[in-house]
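G., the chain you wanted modeled:
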Amino acid sequence: MSNTTLLLIAIAMMMLVAVPLAFMLKDFLPRAMLRSSGLEQLENRIYVLHSEAHDLQDRVKGLEQRRNQLSSDKHRVESDNRKMEKAIAELADQSPLFVHEVGTPQAGLTKFIVNVSQEKASAAARASGDRAAVNPIWRCINVAEVWAASLEDAKQLVEVAFPFKMGFEKSFQKTPGTNQPGRPSQAKASAS
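Predicted structure as tokens:
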């Protein structure tokens, strides 16, 4: 055998051993490289991070919607507060209205409205130096609702309830049964 033949036989033997080894490495090597490189772990981590990013985006959208809702609620509440403050200021500027009920409301009776004031409670009496003790309600607007069958009966009831000798001044409103316009709240007081 010559050297060439031996070389060819050695090459053939190497080929016989190399082919199955190549097939084994072809199956084994990529898995080993994947395990050693951690590519599968990186893919899993990327998937988890992608999922977390979507969750965070959903939370951000929810928080933005809540912020917008709270902002609109805040503006609505501020607007309502301004309206209430304006109404409170208007009410504070008005003097109270006291309504005295004279007579008993019954079917067939007419309600007459009478403006009532007391002379010694007027600003003119206080300015002239009159220091008589006066119930503070007479410094405000007072109205009597008189329930009577006729205007004459109403005048008699008012005279008994608010006598002239006590300093009361009375004036009937033109139309019976009308209320004072523009008065949202009324404090009721019974006259005896």
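The first strand starts at residue 97 and ends at 102.

Shout if anything looks off.
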